[in-house]
Amino acid sequence: MKVFKTLFLFAVATLFAMSLTAVPVKADTGLIKIDGSSTVYPITEAVAEEFQKSTKGATKVTVGISGTGGGFKKFCRNETDISDASRPILKKEMDACKEAGIQYVELPVAYDALTVVVNPQNDWLKSITVDELKKMWAPEAQGTVMKWNQVNPAWPDQPIKLFGPGADSGTFDYFTEAIVGKSKSSRGDFTASEDDNVLVQGVARDKYALGYFGMAYYAENSTKLKAVPVVAAAGKPAVLPSVETVKNGTYQPLSRPIFIYVNAKSMEKKEVRDFVEFYIKNAPKLVKEVKYVPLPDTAYKLAADNFKSKKLGTGFGGEPEVGVSVEELLKREGKH
User: Fold this and answer.
1) What's the pTM?
2) What is the 3-state secondary structure (H, E, C) of 227-238?
3) Pick the CATH number of 113-247 from 3.90.470.20, 3.40.50.360, 3.40.630.30, 3.40.190.10
């Protein structure tokens, strides 16, 4: 009798447990996956935080840092909804996305200024010309231009310690295009990292170091570093990167637009559409807060219109383009 009672109690307990598992569970919250540029990361992260607050946790946004190139690899494998990019999509990435059936909308979100930085103890570098930067960073400098006085005889007879973004970085692509004249054309014997904080620490620790990265990272670390004014060409003044010099076009050739790319298939998800609309609407305020330069209001309106009309493709030809205006870019026919 005792056995039957035990079996009965076990059966009741089992049925009770099954009834619990049968209770409907609340559906998972919406998830938006973003990866890519370390330069664009502070903007997208700021937007993501504000957006998640506005949805009261109904949507989760993850933002990774794989570098622009690394982000596009994931994007073209359909692993992310949005890709942060500090330069336009390249031809090989366009081809990879096309092969995988990935279509996208290209949206500029801000201006950035690549900032050349040195250690605060550097007392000889008052400004630097584009030609001097080229002499320092060109492929032929590898193993040959190793000291400061080899770039300019007035500078010290001391080793140059160079720090810069890695080959997967859009900042690397744009810098090499603007300074050397060809994207990805650079000496390889420098300390490279996709993490801008590594570059900041490297330059901050060495009197004879020089590096480059986005203006926001310099602004965050301006007590540890010194920005170097850049002379674009003979007869031109030395110009420091700032909101004013980027907006008025005098900081050349290292000013550039930065982007997000939205997977067209992901736009079918309401949370992605809501996020991108929120991004464009709030970009002027949040871009400024994280020390980047907002686009003109007309450019944000054009971007919103392009997103709403689902204008596919890129306004570029598969290579970074120095000096293009954002308004011109947004009006171009999309290439795939």
Assistant:
1) 0.81
2) ECCEECCCCCCE
3) 3.40.190.10
